[in-house]
Amino acid sequence: MRFKRILLKLSGESLMGKQGYGIDPERLGEYARQIKEIADLGVQIGIVIGGGNIFRGLSGASKGFDRYKGDQMGMLATVINAMALSSALESVGQKARVLTAIRMEPVGEMYSKPKAIEALNRGEVAIFSAGTGNPYFTTDTGSSLRGIEIEADVMLKGTRVDGIYTADPEKDPTATKFDDITYDEIYNKGLKVMDLTATTMCKENNLPIIVFNMDKPGNLIKVIKGEKIGTYVHN
Question: 151: domain range?
Fold first, then answer.
């Protein structure tokens, strides 16, 4: 097995499934089964999930919401998704714990590194919600931060596309895929993989990223076993 401890970043948008909004129970169940499958192999799993299926701070700001409040609403959206995922995991027999970056017991416990590591060592899936707890940071930055803190071997960024391309493959049919790319190349080519803050944190702390299609069942376990899918980002 290639990785012992991972940080899995899931997009909130992916949770919408075919609905176009909110949480699709089918997609949620599918994610829970894939996560349990790798937990059963003994992989320690931390998860950060976005909130774009419910509310996105940045697009809220463009519609007249104050950015500070918009980002706080976005953080709360990630907590709703974290609770849904934790419930789905428990229903397939996988213990999970929700840790929040903003104090909100009894919804979830306040995040701290020792608590997160303790949960991982006990075989629980640790779900980190509410981003970094600060406005002006994205959940990508939240996942870089948590990945570095829990000393993950890799950040797995589950998206709707199967890796990083020269352009958006959903819009540009001539876009070609990178199997392997360095952080510096991402900067130089101006590729939108994550926001710059998140990318810089991974680069400076030497946390590699694999971008892959999480919406295709079976892909997560392939990544864990070291099969060459997605795009590998490294120093």
Answer: 5-234
- Number of domains forming the structure of the chain: 1
- C-alpha span between 218 and 59 (Å, rounded): 32
* Torsion angles phi and psi, residue 114, rounded to 5: -60, -40
- Among 220, 113, 112, CA closest to 159: 220
The neighbouring-strand residues paired with 45 are: 6
**The residue type at 30:** E
Strand-pair category, 96-100 with 109-110: parallel
In angstroms, rounded to a whole number, what is the distance separating the alpha carbons of residues 58 and 70? 7
Question: d(Cα 45, Cα 150) in Å, to the nearest integer?
Answer: 10
pLDDT digits (tens, 9 = 90+) for 66-92: 889 999 999 999 999 999 999 999 999
Closest CA to 125 of 58, 35, 56, 31: 35
Task: Note the pTM of the prediction, 2 decimals.
Answer: 0.95
Give the CATH number, domain containing residue 54. Answer: 3.40.1160.10
Structure tokens that stand for 63 in this block: 């519609």
- Determine the pLDDT at residue 62: 76
Residue with tokens 């376990």: 221
